[in-house]
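Run folding on both entries below.
>entry_1
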Amino acid sequence: MRNGFVKVAAATPRIQVADPVYNRQRMEEQMREAADNGAKLIVFPELALPGYTCGDLFLQSRLLEETADQLRALVDASREVDALVFVGTTWPEGGKLYNVAAAFSRGELLGVVPKRHLPNYGEFYELRHFAPGNLSAVDVEFTDWEGQHYLVPFGSRILFQCEEMEALTVGAEICEDLWAPQPPSISHALAGATVLVNCSASSESAGKSSYRRSLVAGQSGRLISGYVYAASGEGESSTDLVFGGQNLIGENGTLLAEAALFQNEITYGVLDVEKLQAERRRNGTFGPMDSQGYEVVSFSLEPEETELPPVSRTPFLPAGSQPASAPDYGQTQERFEEILGMQAMGLKKRLEHTGCRFAVVGLSGGLDSTLALLVAVRAFDRLGLPREGLLAVTMPCFGASDRTYRNACALAQAVGASLREISIKDSVRSHFRDIGQPEERHDVTYENAQARERTQVLMDVANQVGGLVIGTGDLSELALGWATYNGDHMSMYGVNGGVPKTLVRHLVRYWADTCGEEALSQALYDVLDTPVSPELLPPEDGRISQKTEDLVGPYELHDFFLYYMLRFGFSPEKIYRLARKAFGEDYRAGEILRWMKQFYRRFFALHFKRSRLPDGPRVGAVALSPRGDWRMPSDASARIWLEEAEALEE
């Protein structure tokens, strides 16, 4: 349960209709099994204790009495189980019978949530036997297995909150409640529930499983919540219906787990309630919180370690975007096309607005400038402008390698751009003489003078043709402040500012795999195989000597840190834990920690560079534009983040 992670389970027992003793035994077995597997929240189907398909047997007092006895036995059995459990059962009260979800933990019944919306159409006729539940909770009496009497809340508006982790707040609804125009889960979430459970007995029909899947995923996304849906399965009467046991676990629009139909499984998932809370905080339209009329019932759990779910190494990338040779990109193609389209449309609008028919790109032969060139090509094509108006400028200096020079030339030729080679060596040497900088002193002045000279050349060339300078710097470089202030930091429109380095690489590879132009593909593949470098230090034996990731750290780690810090506001401890899970096979814990400290230091110290960024399109959920996406003072202290990082153990 540390860091907000909670393992949950949706369990479908094999039952016998109208045999609460047998059903309780099967549920007790599954309850213990799920708890032994680490589940802290366990949900059973609707009316699972007597059986949903009892029909008019629900009018028999003998069945109701035995069901009540077996509920007492099941509650008592939970003394040995460290979990919050929801069971679908019957509840006679005030001369009426209710279809309820009984919530209990550690031998104590905590509350009873009645079904609000009773279907009475098609194959359903629940109003024949049950009364709709009340909203506000009232106290009802419960007698436990030992004969002790105590009062418990009965009503729809009950939330169950974990004492050890308040972010784990649970609300319940029952089957049809989710299908209704205004499900109880809406008010539960607005009252503070981060996890919603549903005890269901939804029967099967052709195509219904797909709709049910979208309903659960959609509701979890709409309410920024976890959703645990337990469905009745084999064992219910098949006189007229079939029940598939389609257990579903959703989290904020994503389906984490699903049971195979007709298997009567226990389905597990790990929810991150801390992430859900963070998402709600940043979503200005969620809320405001309204807990009026709700009763909050506390329960306690042992704060045991929860095994983390699989963690993607590339959170900025769509799932399944690790291309093989000549891959079938499938749905990933749609996502990559969408990103490239947003970049190109942003540039297209800027060119249209300024009336420019020319654009200038400093083409180094590296990844970022390659992607900027490709995006500019797409924008020119959409405008119907000749590609010759796209000026690719290569500016060799002290650190330029033969390989990147050849790639720059090949790329320009392959896309039909105009290529200009402008050596800046003499200009930089003249500048060194002006400021008294020895050429043999390879310090930050030596490096940045080249970067600023390149930017000056690009700006002046753009003036010559009446065009725009297209910025090439990416989101990862902006986060780390890995840009020369008023050098490559500056442009007239930055197309890559919303794209992290890991995604830049995949977009370029995607273009290489799908463009169908052999010369362009070969040039792109060679760019992909070239080490990332600003090429500001002289090559060694003709090879790149300055490798960015040796200096600032692996971009795959920094992108990982960036995503979870900005997207969800996670603490260094939680990000470190996730990173060890994702990268443990390739990086030692000490390496991950070292680069994470580097990330925090650079992110805070160099924010002033981000405060003066050129315009550029936002393409994902994480962006650093000072005009909207990320606003922080340039002199904010990194102290508390670094102190927490320093305290972490390798």
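>entry_2
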Amino acid sequence: MRARLAGYVSRAQLVVGAVAAVGLMIAGAGVLERSRLDARAVMETSAAGEASQDTTLPLIPREFRGVWVATVANIDWPSKPGLPVAQQQAELLTILDRAAELNLNAVLFQVRPHADALYKSDIEPWSEYLTGTQGQAPSPMWDPLEFAVRESHARGLELHAWFNPYRARNDASKSPLASNHISRTNPTLVKPYGRFLWMDPGEPLVRRRTLRVVLDVVKRYDIDGVHIDDYFYPYPIAQARGRGELPFPDDASWNKYRAAKGQLSRDDWRRENVNTLVRELAEGIRTEKPWVKFGISPFGIWRPGSPPSVRGFDAYERLYADAKKWLNEGWGDYFSPQLYWPTYKEGQKYPVLLEWWTAENTKRRHMWPGNFTSRAGATGTGSFSVSELLEQISETRRNPGATGNVHFSMRSFVRNQAGMNDTLRLAPYRHAALVPASPWMSAPPPPSPRVWMGRDTRGRRTVELTTVTGERPWLWVVRARTSRGWQTDVMPGAQTTWTAAGTTDPLQVVVSTVNRIGEERTQ
């Protein structure tokens, strides 16, 4: 991927020294300061020649641009179960290519829809959404997660593995349960709830299994993040003939807790079960690989009345999800509350909810709200215009506590629904952006760049991209100053050369490296 930021000059600029090298000016400044996206500057383009004499190094904008790729019920990928492997791979490459074309920088790929796996696992069965039959391996054998990680990184995209921690069977499931599915190997841990099967959050063995599954992936795959969504205790199901909501059948685990002299109320005990899982996931991931982000995407309303104008579903009472506590404690590295309502929706206004979430972010973790992008340009209840989607992105950028968005889901981008891709590329996503840095996380520092100048067979100026130690960075950033101003290219760490656009030599070239937590270093 070569994502171009032609003409962008940030208002927040860093002055650097320069040294001559092979007729060009090669600038160096050590580790660059971290910057937040200036949305107005990104959407403006400098006039031709305006910045030609400006040697001030422009900071690249920082914004998370993620997209959920859902595999449950084949929402986004694969388009249907049981496709030939070559077609599955082609569809996945189309998704990743589209994400790169749109200047997105992260893909949240669902790998555990319900106690199954879209990757090679010794713990859980292959997902029916891949092969059509739960437990049946693909033939010829391949590993979708390994493939997705490799191909995402080749495009400069982060790959976050998305897990569902408790759901054991979806109401859309069709194939028989595999012999190694948890409902077969340990049925006392799994409860029927309506047409679903649900792993009981009150059972410590369930928590240990989810932790084992997640950390197995963290250890074996070069992922950039672990992601969980809003499914904790199940969304309540109404019983027939007005008999109220179906109670969740956790009497056995509750009675064991009480017999052990537990003092919490049943509701508080349920919330603490979920709290414990979230905390242990955060601790386990950081211990195993401290550069892997842990992201949580809770329901967009913590509680009605928070803030006072907000009405709607109470996730604290009904899902036993105390997302405010997780945020206040800093257990996640990023939070993507599902703000799935328009900016004008009474009782659930997007900017009002976003302001509440950012105000609660006392540990200053990343706030990257989720958008219901599939409703943009659609028809029916809850739909809104593509211009409203752009307004939501603008509202995020106007909030100083938020630095990006996550879109649900990829199918709207694959279809270019209502021409949204063209609109995004012309306006908010016209230029590439780096994922905001995570200073509370730990990773090896960016390697020092070492550049060699040359020319290609067409006489264009080229730069050989290497580092002093020979190790690859996560990303390369090349800034080139021409007579028309600065242009910036973001490239994956595996890329080895950069070539100037056109036949005129740049006046100045600056090469920098970026590591896994977003720190940037120039040569």
